């Protein structure tokens, strides 16, 4: 391979964020890092206790100066606490409190934990304005449905993370909040005028750019008025004309996971990589599915696209310059120690809301209504069991629930029903309604968005299912 070929391959590799299985880095990842790979994205299956995570990130840094990223939003979407649930409430809870200084403190604490583990880029905060109640992928990940509120908390989150030298990655540009389709599965459509898009969806991104966010993540959503039927991740109108031109953003543009069906089922992984780079992205987050063979194929396809004129070499050089600037920023401060200051529980306590007066607990029976996790959240534990050890906990799928049997078990006992996003799950609503119709003295705890609630029962809204949210709810119930 000639020197120019090696240089081009290195530029192509530098645009990729790869993933791998396990808690140690495979040899192929370390070799590719030495050969210019942009970095890695970690998932819950990569994360063990902090010492092992530090060893993993140290091995990656020994090979190169990579971007080491993950999705740590707090709340339902957590990677550091994937196996136990987050000690921080998510954005919906912080938006309910609406104290920007508190949001800054929460995200600074999250950032300090990431930095102490060797993570230098957090794919957060979520800046989507969640105007669609039936949104299957955003929900409690959003600060709310008001653009001004979302904007001020997005700024606080960006500044909190970056105050401890962890780069923020504000997502999902140009907005995923008005969708009813999960882009992991298909291409969602945001069918609004450009005026609405500018006033609503873009307000938090505009504020984040003003606050100096180091990176922005693209969305695999189409906006017919802007991108036609093309996902924004592949659209020059979205990434170059709007983001770079109109909004004057010059930081790193990172794609959402390229292995999502919105990309793989439309243009394919390698084809999508070339189209996204041509449209204006700098780093391609490949997601957890692509293998080393896939990575090599993507690099080869990017090189081929430069050779045959589909992708200007200048685009790769521009991406490399932005990544170099990001790496220089990473190295500009000492690594802080993790802040164990209890701000997560404090925030969850401020967010929780109680309507009605719960009965004192007597031999409580807790029925947790099972809710399938979204792909973004994954299989993170949730529920109130850790905070109510004296209770009998039953987790039931609505389709399998035998209401008379459950009610019989609750005879002469306190009944607590825990549900998540009941407004999006009709079987869950039917089960909760049947239980509280027979037991109006029950307490219902909603651990998603509190949009639907049964009448005439004590009702606790947590605005999220993180560990901190559950603890705050049970404290109210047992006070």
From TrEMBL:
Which UniProt keywords are listed? Answer: Glycosidase, Hydrolase
Question: What EC numbers are recorded for this enzyme?
Answer: 3.2.1.-
Q: Where is the Glycoside hydrolase family 3 N-terminal domain?
A: 34-325
> Which top EC class applies here?
hydrolase
UniProt GO MF annotations: hydrolase activity, acting on glycosyl bonds
Q: Which family does it belong to?
A: Belongs to the glycosyl hydrolase 3 family.
Q: What protein name does the entry list?
A: Glycoside hydrolase family 3 protein
Species this protein is from: Nonomuraea guangzhouensis
